[in-house]
Amino acid sequence: MVKKTLKQRIVDASVELFQQDGYHNVTVDRIVEYIGASKGGFYHNFKSKDELLYEIHDVFISYVIQQSQAAYDKFDTPITRLCAMLQTLTQVFDMYQAHITIFYEESRSLSDEYSDIIHKKRDHYRDILQRVIAEGQEAKVFRTELPCTIVTMAIVGMINWTYKWFKQSGPLTMEQITDVFTDMVLRAIVTEQAMGEAKQFIIKG
């Protein structure tokens, strides 16, 4: 097993402590005490708690962007690309649910400096997804009467709310939930002539 860097240990500890007691109730002193590090070690990696909160967000948004671009490059049809990207987006809520919960609950605490970077990264992800929707509409695979931007935002909005209700101990795995999302999205946006390709990703009744 690869030994974690001090930066990784600080992030992991802060996620645990922020989730337990809230961002504003956890001090830098408490974080470094929790992992047996020094304040100097903290400030060598982060100039402030704000930067630490930004890093918590960056961990999962960078993963989503990287994996979404990889899915786009790996597959060659709008339907297969979209399904792979839906899987990537839902998977992040399983892998980084604590990070995502903390960020959404505490993001208003961030300064404009970090908020601007976050907005750019989120726009980057949406641009990849919207490109797939637009290409699908151009190829008459996705319904053209649905505005591309609204379809994109609807998909992101629907899945983003998963952090509020998903439980790893719940009756459905994230893979099963992903199948439901995929079924709903495809049935809503795929054209009749493209439904043959989409059927392999739709839940069999």
UniProtKB/TrEMBL annotation:
The keyword Repressor applies. Residues 27-46 bind DNA. InterPro entries: Homeodomain-like_sf, HTH-type_Tx_Regulator, HTH_TetR, KstR2_TetR_C, Tet_transcr_reg_TetR-rel_C_sf. It holds the Pfam family TetR_C_24. Keywords: DNA-binding, Repressor. The keyword Iron-sulfur does not apply. Residues 4-64 form the HTH tetR-type domain. This is TetR family transcriptional regulator. PANTHER family: ACREF/ENVCD OPERON REPRESSOR-RELATED, ACREF_ENVCD OPERON REPRESSOR-RELATED. It comes from the Bacteria.
